Amino acid sequence: MSLEQASRDNLDYMITDLQKKLQIVNVSVMQPEHFDVDQYHEIKEIYDMVDAKDNISVSEMQAIVSELGHLRKG
After folding, report:
1. pTM score of the predicted model
2. Using one digit for the tens of pLDDT, what is the confidence trace for 21-49?
3. Which among 32, 47, 57, 64 is most buried, taking Cβ atoms within 10 Å?
4. Are 32 and 16 in contact (CB under 8 A)?
5. Domain presence at residue 2
6. Total of domains in the chain
7. How far apart are CA 26 and CA 24, in angstroms?
8. CB atoms < 10 A from the CB of 1, how many?
9. What is the residue range of 31's domain?
10. Integer CA distances (angstroms), 28 to 7, 19, 21, 33, 67, in order
11. Which of the 8 DSSP states describes residue 35?
């Protein structure tokens, strides 16, 4: 799947995959509809970083989730 094109489907895919990779227990706090396609490139940077790592430390996970929280709508 090519994620180079900013689209709602690609954004939904990345957020759902990030939920799995970051082992988000309460997925209701990070739903794809909470994010706007206007922030696609910022979310893609986070996605690419997480995707490139084999392991993510707890502190990295907290920082990533915090950054995603800043990118949420409203």
Report:
1. 0.90
2. 999 888 888 999 999 999 999 999 999 99
3. 47
4. yes
5. no
6. 1
7. 6
8. 7
9. 8-71
10. 21, 10, 16, 10, 17
11. B
